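Supplementary material to the annual report.
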Amino acid sequence: MSYDEKFQISTLAIHGGRVPDAHAEAVVYPIFQSATFEQQETGVTKGHSYSRVSNPTVDALEQAIGALEGTPQAVCFRTGMAAITTLFLSTVKTGDHVVLTDVVYGGTMRLFREVLNGLGIANTSTDTSDLEAVERAITPHTRIILIETPGNPTMKLADIAGIAAIARNHGLLLAVDNTFLTPVLQRPLELGADISVLSTTKYIEGHHATVGGSLACNDARLLDRFRLVRKTIGAIQAPLDAWLTLRGLKTLPLRMKAHSETAVLIAEWLEAHPMVARVYYPGLDSFPQKALAERQQASFGAMLSFELKAGPQEAIAVMNAMKLWIRAESLGGVESLVTHPATATHADVPVETRQRLGITDGLIRLSVGLEAAEDLIADLRQALDSVFGGNSERSANHEVCQQAG
Amino acid sequence: MKFASKLVSFDVAPGDPFRPMATPIYQTATFEQEEATAFGPYDYSRSGNPTRTVLEEQIAGLENGTRGFCFSSGMAAITCVTRLLKTGDEILADSDLYGGTCRLFTRVLDRTGITARYADACDIEAFAAQINDRTKLVYLESPTNPLLRVVDIWQIADLAHAVGALLAVDSSTMSPYLQNPMDLGADIVLHSATKFLCGHSDVTAGVIVVRNDELAKQIYFLQNAEGSALGPFDAFLFLRGLKTLKLRMDAQQKNAQAIAEWLEAHPQVTAVNYPGLASSPGYLLQHRQARGAGAVLSFTTGSAEASRIIVEATRMFSICVSFGSINSTISLPGCMSHASVPPEVGELRDLPGDLVRISVGIEDAGDLIADLGQAFAAAFSPTVERQVDATEVA
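Predicted assembly:
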């Protein structure tokens, strides 16, 4: 069946990647674990020649991601960083300049610091929640802006439509790393961005079982350029990982809904806890950019951070006392994860920058999984109680817990 | 812990020093021994494999059983249960069984002198009348496939136990999220895990969960002796699929209810079989012994030809056997999944030629209903009827 753009996203997630398997009509597309493909005649292929260039299983995944993004077939990569590397190798050259959000993923910063800066590609990191700051960061050499919204780990948002207008005025490309929300909850391309970037490792595959990345856009020449660079540097996704990702994304709309609904309950519970100083979650009334989240997101997502009314040692002690929440890097899978940004995801960021961005040593980041909200809250409660003394939660919000069941 | 938490919060890799989030795939046939005469916990993957162990423990816990076993298909699991019987023993089964199970009972087991007899398990007195002292296994599905009849598991368990027979229940249409037959008295719970448990139409697998250690010992012996256990990679995919079981079933069941209600109101539908409809004869019993009606339903149109056209005219429903997947499927059980039912059993169960079975996926309910709507229009438009007649004449 060819997918129809009027279908709802839950339908597209199932059928968007359903390339008919002409040979056996299998409901699930085959894993073409083959490095090379026989030629019909010398030099004539049936569309695939070598799996570094393209592969039928990777194609099926790319069609599915394209269907979710509302674009032509996307381009998939071995990792999210391979996608980001390809993005820049395809769009900038020596002498060019890139504007990055100041809360960009640490791996992207490392790419610039350790690789691209040495090749004469400069970058400026700026506060992309401030449109004037974005304007000021642009130089005559700027070619592309890369933002992440919500930003990691304080969920700082960037106005995608606003920045898209600035990019258009200056003739620049705008790329949005939409890993935290996926096209199910936020549609950067429909808000005016040119390129959507995903680490498929996170929600898209959703089971903490593969690593991968994707780039999607509506510009056929840019897509060709991505494929050319990917082929040249050898960054394509592997067939089995593509197949697992394709399988994972079929439940993406269900998972995003469940993740987000639980995250709202957890954010509200944490905010009401007397030992919690601050919760960073775009769905809370206390979140300064809640109105922007409501404007450009379908819901508030399932990533949040909070700070205790205590120091870093207590934060680490609370994390260590958690039983259901798993201490691990990454995010977006079925299991709930907890991380300490100052020593894990953002350990490479200089202390003064961390302070400016609000990434204090007492900040704890949560990726809310698919467990029952009641169980996740009970575990947070016992962890806080174990560090701050029994019954640290004097204002228990039982209603929230009961709804969560 | 709530069911949603149990599905994702368990030790995915016991004793593994790297603490991965996904269970490692131990794709190995054999395991090195520390000493020539001493084995570690694993020696050979037919006998046991670490990936499969994680899965078997998880599934036993979800079914409230003593121990779980995973097989290379649902039929391999059912076959293993029948190996508990010997020549001269009898199976008494409900008359509405999966066609493959019927084939096994009637055309394979007879070669070893095991007799299968069938009776309507919804009629408790008639069913009880068929039990005798040779009956060693009572076997049923609930809700049944494809007629969605609901069998009173509790009452049948009492009947079976009164003559010392075991009760085995194939709970594939429900999954442990919606029904736990062991809590209702079953001794053995079976699943075609290909269906809701794996949920993505990409694994063929079967499950046995048993009530007690004695049965566990026997099933383990048979699984190892016959070499029918699930492979490591399929066990990994099964484990991965299981994590979203609740989300999938919730969404599929909600869609199924909407479709059943739409079908019930459709003027061309003569009957809808779905225990989630208040008009269904099994409605009350289903809500007493299970936590939902599931996502498989069937209906009739009064015309075998119209039913065939509907099945072929849908675009979002794949025409295929199997059920329980995230993508919706449609079939004509009389010609497909139940074609292997022997004629003598077929007569007893009276499977109508216009019966259409639907397994509802997680697509948008509105999209699915719109698709069914256009398929009904195709089947019942005057032009199509004329075309059908012309074809028949030709």
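Chain B touches chain A at residues 1-5, 7-9, 19, 21-22, 200-202, 237, 240, 243-244, 246-248, 251, 315-316, 318, 320, 325-327, 329, 361-364, 366-367 (CB under 8 Å).
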